[in-house]
Amino acid sequence: xxxxxxxxxxxxxxxxxxxxxxxxxxxxxxxxxxxxxxxxxxxxxxxxxxxxxxxxxxxxxxxxxxxxxxxxxxxxxxxxxxxxxxxxxxxxxxxxxxxxxxxxxxxxxxxxxxxxxxxxxxxxxxxxxxxxxxxxxxxxxxxxxxxxxxxxxxxxxxxxxxxxxxxxxxxxxxxxxxxxxxxxxxxxxxxx
Length: 192
Fold this sequence. Notes:
The protein is an alpha+beta fold. It has helices at residues 2-10, 14-23, 33-43, 48-60, 76-88, 98-103, 105-111, 122-133, 161-170; strands spanning 68-73, 93-96, 113-117, 154-158, 180-184, 190-191. It has two domains: 2-60, no CATH class; 64-191, no CATH class.
């Protein structure tokens, strides 16, 4: 059976073999496949550690010209608060023109400090920012049912953090941040 597997693996291109090693998916490949792949790549004179590092670097590559702008702010503080909300929602984002706010504030106010995300994350990012501006949670997650009444109409928020983000995005300096809380929209019960 190992000879049959080796024959099938030898027919695969080098890139696919490297992807097998990078992913090491035990549901797709039996454990004995990985040493076979390494041996085939060694026979092809492939520096496996270097090739795997190149694959990882390519996966982390960001095409900055293709990023989509989801918000523009007149101050760097507002842009970074927006970045914090997006990163809390696990949406990678980048800030552009941040240096202008420190060098020439009036120019930064005209040009703006922009927050950009990958095109595939733009819709979710805009939803998060709309929720923050509306005073909702910056990182929506499903909460457990209310311990008092058992209903599932529960909102996750923070004692001060949502107010901090919403206030900072709309008016200025942030307030102190605090801990997470859950609030039942049916009975009003609050718990951590």
